Amino acid sequence: MPRPALPDRRSGPKDCNGGTRLLTRLAADRRGISGIEFALILPLIIVLFAATLDLGEGLMVSRRLDQISATTSDIMTQESSWSTSGVETLVEGAVSILEPFDTAALKVTVSVLNVSSTGTATVAWSYGYQTAALAKGANSPVDIPANIAESGVQLVVTTVEHDITTIFTALLSEITGLDSYHLTSSAISRPRVGNTVSQE
Q1: H or E, element range at 52
Q2: Could you report the per-residue pLDDT of 44-54, keeping only the tens digit for each?
Q3: Is 76:158 a contact under the CB 8 Å cutoff?
Q4: Does the pTM exceed 0.70?
Q5: Rounded to an integer, what distance in angstroms lies between the CA atom of residue 119 and that of residue 131?
Q6: Are 115 and 153 contacting, i.e. CB atoms less than 8 angstroms apart?
Q7: C-alpha pair distances (Å), 92 with each of 26, 129, 130, 160, 199
Q8: Strands of the 155-164 sheet, one edge to the other
Q9: Where do the domains of the chain lie?
Q10: Is the dihedral of CA 66, 109, 193, 153 positive or negative?
Q11: Between the chain's N and C termini, which has fewer beta carbons within 10 Å?
């Protein structure tokens, strides 16, 4: 007597169970998540990296501007009089502190101020590097603290301005709204020789 045919186990319910197991394995597979997460945070990493470089360069330039203004004012007060060529030589030497950064956009103004009996400071004479000098009688370019303003004693004020454009300025312009960064510095000193610093 022939035996009855056995059912084909390669089809039917087995196929359905195999498809279910495949979907389950795919749902449980986490091997590609790290790549997806990295792709999502990569733009943020680039922006943070660019911002860090921009901040570092900006701080470095700002520190050098402080050195230029402080050095210029300090040396100016060590002489009782200066010629225009002497001030020019001094400022050009001080400007070299900024190197290797570009100095094309650098502006330096050295002003000797008169202080009135009321504490008002006005320009006695001035010199400008890559900018116009202040007119005689013009108001002080910076606020003078009351504790250093003394009638009859002149003050030397050096102001420095610089616009810097970094490698990532264009990249960050959509975020900052700036194509360059404007930095300023100023220093105020009293004469060391007498009470005035005259112009020869």
Answers
A1: helix 33-76
A2: 887 788 778 77
A3: yes
A4: yes
A5: 27
A6: yes
A7: 70, 8, 11, 13, 18
A8: 121-129, 107-115, 155-164, 181-189
A9: 33-199
A10: negative
A11: N
